[in-house]
Amino acid sequence: MREHLRQPSTLHVDGVTVRFGAVTALNHVSFDVEPGTIHAVIGPNGAGKSTLFNVLTSVYRASEGSVRYADHELTGMRPHAVAGLGIARTFQNIELSHTTVAGNFLLGRHQQMRQGTVAAALRLPGVRREEREQRRAIEKIAEFVGLRDRMDVLASELPYGDQKRVDLGRALAADPSVLLLDEPVAGMTRHERSDISALIRRTHEELGLTVVLVEHDMPLVMGLAQVCTVLDFGTVIATGEPRAIRSNPAVIEAYLGGVPTTAPTDKATT
Ligand SMILES: Nc1ncnc2c1ncn2[C@@H]1O[C@H](COP(=O)(O)OP(=O)(O)OP(=O)(O)O)[C@@H](O)[C@H]1O
Known about the structure:
Elements: H1 2-6, E1 11-20, E2 23-33, E3 38-42, H2 49-56, E4 64-69, E5 72-73, H3 79-84, E6 87-89, H4 101-109, H5 117-122, H6 125-145, H7 160-173, E7 178-182, H8 190-205, E8 210-214, H9 218-224, E9 227-232, E10 235-240, H10 242-246, H11 249-256
Parallel strand pairs: 3-8, 3-9, 6-7, 7-8
Antiparallel strand pairs: 1-2, 1-4, 4-5, 9-10
Helix pairs in contact: 4-6, 4-7, 6-7
Bound molecules: adenosine-5'-triphosphate (ATP).
Protein name: Amino acid/amide ABC transporter ATP-binding protein 1, HAAT family
Keywords: ATP-binding, Nucleotide-binding, Transport
GO molecular function: ATP binding; ATP hydrolysis activity
């Protein structure tokens, strides 16, 4: 069952509408995220990107429409059940646990643990073997995100850029097939942005993950994404390759009417 779900599948977003009272945050939003792609969701402030992420992870329930992955309807599922299907996320505002880097990775891996807490309390042999396996697994993740020598440091004591790496490692620890990244370089220095951009690319190329990326940093988006979906006032105004998106009149108008400094441009930092 679990192996089946680890097979890459298309994430279908179909007619999703979310209303908050009189505000329609998402208005019949439809697009597909093809397996093995980096798919960016962009749009001016208030366009509905965070709301969409919260629907994809079942934190919010759509008023209408559906989200399907690997023959499963995600709408109405509990968030941990969505995670169990292999859909992991990082957070715009870092939400790390008050423990070490390794502890955060272990918590992310928790779903993978086979042995129960009673067996763990009794220190049964199978538990010790599993603990060793988990330790090896999180060492690999620490290596991958560049924190191998920081595993026993409290995550809260790390610089901001490294905390973002912990957040990414925690998501990877759940062994996902789809990774949802919510503004992964927000608040970072130019150097940190370039590092994280390279890490996202490796996540896609070396681990083969499907990545859904919400980000305001247009050079980063244009350099990484194969497909962009553009939201404006809760409506999809364009979906396509970055090159086509950059010259799409509706997209240019949406940005020029909103936040000119973040409008899609040709220059990529990646
Ligand atoms: N919990 C909520 N209650 C009421 N209105 C909300 C709620 N969450 C979002 N909204 C409204 O829905 C719309 C979309 O907001 P959302 O945060 O999804 O946009 P966004 O594209 O993520 O914006 P930003 O780029 O600034 O993060 C906005 O008008 C916002 O004010």
